[in-house]
Specification:
mainly alpha; globular
């Protein structure tokens, strides 16, 4: 499925948003995440000129499994998902709309990402230096907007710089997927009416 239609792209991008939100919650609570899933989210930030949607998520939609499962649980009102995950995901969609109205910030982010991509090639996308650079980019740009994502977790975990960097980098990854969602025609009000279609998309993807 290299060229999914706009509806499927919206679903995949939403899974990307929810994956970032799920990982933010896990880092904030325990400081631990599934490394492969984490790498998929972080690498998505650095894929700025993809040939297709699949490229953004490591060439395999199965890499979005954590986000797809969280999204399914939200849509089916499964109680086995923390409310913070939905709160973070919705906050990321709001933040992306704020960013879309700020072309100067978008340009600044793009310029900084070019340098970080070079850094990631020298080290690796999830190296602590790259995560610190991504966190700094988030802090210097998106966290200066009037709307902010409030992250709650274990204070002892959040006080560790490495975890703080991971969380900010993951929020940036969530914004990356939220941008794809918006570019594919996603609107927040549509979520109220697209539940059945999204679940059908998740079924067809095997999630």
């Amino acid at each position: 499925m290299n060229n999914p239609d706009s509806g499927m792209r919206q679903t995949l991008a939403l899974a990307g948003v929810f994956q970032a939100a799920q990982l933010v919650h896990e880092v904030a609570q325990r400081g631990l995440v599934d490394q492969q899933v984490f790498e998929t989210s972080i690498q998505s930030i650095l894929i700025t000129d993809p040939e297709n949607t699949e490229d953004i998520y490591g060439g395999d939609f199965f890499n979005l499994r954590a986000g797809a499962r969280a999204l399914r649980k939200i849509l089916t009102k499964d109680t086995d998902v923390h409310p913070n995950v939905l709160r973070y995901a919705m906050a990321l969609l709001v933040l992306q709309t704020k960013l879309a109205k700020n072309p100067a910030m978008l340009t600044a982010i793009g310029q900084r990402l070019d340098a970080i991509k070079s850094q990631a090639q020298h080290f690796s996308p999830t190296h602590e230096n790259v995560l610190a650079a991504l966190a700094g980019l988030y802090q210097d740009t998106l966290s200066t907007l009037s709307f902010r994502v409030q992250v709650h977790g274990d204070p002892n975990v959040l006080q560790q710089q490495g975890n703080a960097d991971k969380i900010r980098a993951l929020l940036l990854a969530g914004i990356r997927s939220a941008m794809l969602w918006s570019q594919s025609g996603g609107k927040r009000w549509k979520l109220l009416f697209s539940r059945k279609r999204i679940l059908q998309d998740l079924d067809s993807l095997g999630f």
